[in-house]
Design a protein that fits this description.
The radius of gyration is 26 Å and the shape is elongated. Strand 9 and strand 10 form a beta hairpin. It has an 8-stranded antiparallel beta barrel. The protein contains 1 helix and 10 strands, in the order H-E-E-E-E-E-E-E-E-E-E. It starts with a helix and ends with a strand. By secondary structure, the protein is mainly beta.
Length: 200
């Protein structure tokens, strides 16, 4: 067999293989499954005598699982503080808060997020959250017992974020805005944070 015939035969045999391979490699598929998340940003409360608190550091850690490509559930622990915002009212004739106007807020929440794909690697992530908040020391009179002690109350909230699946496998980055209302003390809080997510 001539050399030219060998080359033609090899070209015919290899053409189906080449045709089955995408021109840019393996098509992108977002990684889904069990994930962990680390978030660090800013936190503040609104309402109270001072209208809003000073911005403070916010830390959140989470784990979760993608039930489908679009729906995920997670459990998150968040820690922030309200600085210089009085929710107990001022003492009569003064501008001194009746209770502490500086207090820590610890959140334990369940989160449900929906992933809306806008580009190949970019997603919008609206979400709902619910859980419990511990406030220490109590910023409002708990109605019984020592008002200086910490109190716990349920919370519920809404969030909106963006998430980008990076070229590094397993890693996604993004940013969230999360608003939560603490039921009972009637305190509204906001957290704004970038996030790093690792999907196994």
């Amino acid at each position: 067999m001539k050399k030219s015939q060998w080359i033609a035969a090899l070209a015919l045999l290899s053409s189906p293989v080449l045709a089955a391979t995408p021109p840019e490699g393996v098509p992108f598929q977002p990684r889904r499954g069990f994930f962990t998340e680390t978030d660090i940003g800013v936190f503040f409360t609104v309402g109270g005598e001072n209208v809003y608190s000073n911005a403070q550091t916010y830390l959140q850690l989470g784990v979760g699982y993608d039930l489908t490509e679009k729906l995920s559930l997670g459990a998150h622990f968040g820690l922030g503080s309200s600085a210089q915002n009085c929710f107990a009212g001022y003492l009569p004739g003064t501008e001194t808060c009746a209770l502490s106007d500086n207090f820590t807020m610890a959140f334990l929440n369940v989160t449900a997020a929906y992933h809306v794909r806008v580009l190949e690697r970019l997603y919008l992530t609206p979400k709902v959250v619910a859980g419990y908040t511990r406030l220490d020391p109590a910023p409002v009179n708990p109605g019984e017992g020592d008002p200086a002690r910490a109190i716990s109350a349920p919370n519920a909230g809404l969030g909106f974020g963006v998430e980008y699946a990076t070229g590094m496998d397993h890693f996604s980055v993004g940013a969230d805005l999360l608003a939560r209302y603490i039921i009972g003390p009637d305190i509204t809080s906001f957290a704004i944070f970038p996030k790093v997510k690792y999907t196994f």
